[in-house]
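hey m, so remember when u said the C-alpha cells were messed up on ur end? i reran from scratch. heres the input so u can diff it against urs
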Amino acid sequence: MVSTSFPVRFTGWNRFMKVLGMSPSNSYLEIDAEEVRVRMGWTFSLVAPRASVGSAELDDRRVWGWGVHGWRGRWLVNGSSSGIVRFPIDPPVRARLLAIVPITVHEIRISLDDPSAAIDLLAA
C-alpha cells in the first residue's frame, strides 16, 4: 500500500525538540488509502480510518505552545506556529499520549512542512 508522509514543521528554537525525542524524522502525518496516521516522536501516536477524516483546512489561529497539547478531544501536534492543518475525525478515535496514556481525539491541528499538499491529498 502506497503512503505519503508529511514531516511536522519545526522552526526556530523548536528544532531543539529533537533532544526530547521529537524531530521531522519521527514526527509526521502519513496518509494512505486506508488510514491516516499522526506521530510526534514517542509523545503522541494516532491511527484513524481514512473514511473518518473530514475535510482538512489551513488553520491560522494563534498557537500558545509547541509539542503536543490537547483538551476534550482537540489536539495540537506542532513544532511551529505556522503551516498548521486542522481536520476533524468522526467518529473519534483512540490515540496514545506519552506512549501509554489512552486519549480520545476528534480534532487534530498539526504543523506541517507542506500543508497545502497534505490538504490536497486528504481531499482526494
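this time it looks ok to me. The longest strand covers residues 84-97. if urs says something different then somethings off w ur setup not the seq
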